């Protein structure tokens, strides 16, 4: 399977901000998040949700002028969903962040709605992706078929707080092992389908504990996750660091590739590095790490150049 998103999309940090907060949106370009999420859901009061839709079209270009991808998190209710999506699908949008998904049929209907709006608004069909947020037992039980429901799906995330509410669990160190089960199932479903597994090993609500937030991100990265969401700008660089290969990782990967390719040139299927065996899986892991490192460097350069253009009045 071609890993369309897993190998090519960088989403270490998704900064969620209320779509009706002009001050936040005006400063979004400077945050260096890989993606800005204009939120119509949890961070917007019920009384403001419909009115906030009118701000989305203009906010997409404002939030994205620093080179970040721009997503819109919609309300997954019968009353609001279609109107939210219609307000969000405009040129410049990267994707719809789709919460509380529980079935493949919901994803298929979302895909069809996006297609109609892309056609209507002159956007190449297939441009806009869907980020799936699993927040209930039902969604979790259906996650494998959900992950296969559309080629637009770029990521899978477990909404730990809402999932804990539905299961009656706490999100705490005492329940780490229990929550690791659904987290890893989310990761397996994502990687099986070539899409990004996103999420922390803790809670995004602990945003003031920067050291703890970094540890959560780094632990998630070791488990195979490639990014996460945050709700405060101070967490963006924490996530960017936590979900990036370190300098030491990159150097080691280069050495693995060098020694393996030299061994292969001599007709050997395995070799040693620093006293450890190196064979094909180690070689492939090293190549994937270097490919991701290069992709991160390119994306960082793109964002830096975009921010400089804004600062210089370009």
* Estimated share of beta-strand residues: 5-15%
CATH topology of the largest domain: TIM Barrel
Kindly provide the name of the CATH class of the largest domain: Alpha Beta
Helical region count?
12
What's the architecture of the largest domain, going by CATH?
Answer: Alpha-Beta Barrel
Strand order of the largest sheet: 7-6-5-4-3-2-1-8
- How many structural domains are formed by the residues? 2
State the share of residues found in helices, binned by percent: 40-55%
Q: Which geometry do the CA atoms define?
A: globular
Question: CATH superfamily assignment of the largest domain?
Answer: Phosphoenolpyruvate-binding domains
Biggest beta-sheet profile: 8 strands, parallel
Tell me the structural class: alpha/beta
Compute the gyration radius: what is it?
A: 20 Å
What string gives the helices and strands in order? EHEHEHEHEHHEHHEHEHHEEH
**Unreliable spans:** none
Mean pLDDT equals 95
Distance between the termini: 41 Å
Beta strands, count: 10
């Amino acid at each position: 399977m071609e890993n369309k998103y897993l190998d090519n999309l960088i989403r270490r940090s998704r900064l969620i901000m209320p779509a009706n907060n002009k001050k936040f949106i005006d400063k979004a370009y400077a945050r260096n998040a890989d993606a800005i999420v204009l939120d119509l859901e949890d961070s917007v009061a019920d009384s403001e949700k419909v009115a906030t839709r009118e701000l989305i079209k203009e906010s997409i270009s404002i939030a994205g002028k620093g080179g970040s991808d721009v997503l819109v998190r919609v309300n997954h209710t019968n009353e609001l969903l279609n109107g939210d999506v219609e307000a969000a699908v405009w040129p410049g949008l990267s994707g719809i962040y789709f919460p509380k998904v529980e079935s493949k049929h919901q994803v298929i209907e979302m895909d069809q709605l996006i297609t109609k709006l892309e056609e209507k608004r002159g956007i190449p069909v297939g441009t806009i992706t869907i980020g799936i947020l699993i927040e209930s037992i039902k969604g979790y039980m259906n996650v494998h078929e959900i992950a296969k429901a559309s080629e637009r799906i770029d990521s899978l995330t477990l909404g730990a707080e809402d999932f804990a509410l539905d299961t009656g669990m706490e999100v705490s160190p005492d329940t780490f092992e229990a929550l690791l089960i659904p987290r890893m199932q989310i990761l397996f479903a994502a990687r099986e389908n070539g899409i990004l597994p996103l999420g922390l090993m803790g809670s995004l609500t602990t945003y003031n504990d920067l050291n703890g937030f970094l540890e959560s991100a780094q632990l998630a990265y070791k488990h195979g996750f490639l990014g996460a969401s945050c709700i405060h700008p101070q967490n963006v660089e924490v996530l960017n660091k936590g979900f990036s290969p370190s300098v030491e990782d990159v150097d080691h990967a280069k050495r693995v590739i060098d020694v393996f390719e030299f061994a292969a040139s001599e007709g050997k299927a395995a070799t040693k590095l620093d006293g450890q065996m190196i064979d094909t899986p180690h070689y492939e892991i090293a190549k994937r790490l270097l490919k991701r490192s290069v992709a991160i460097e390119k994306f960082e350069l793109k964002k830096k150049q975009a921010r400089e253009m804004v600062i210089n009045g370009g």
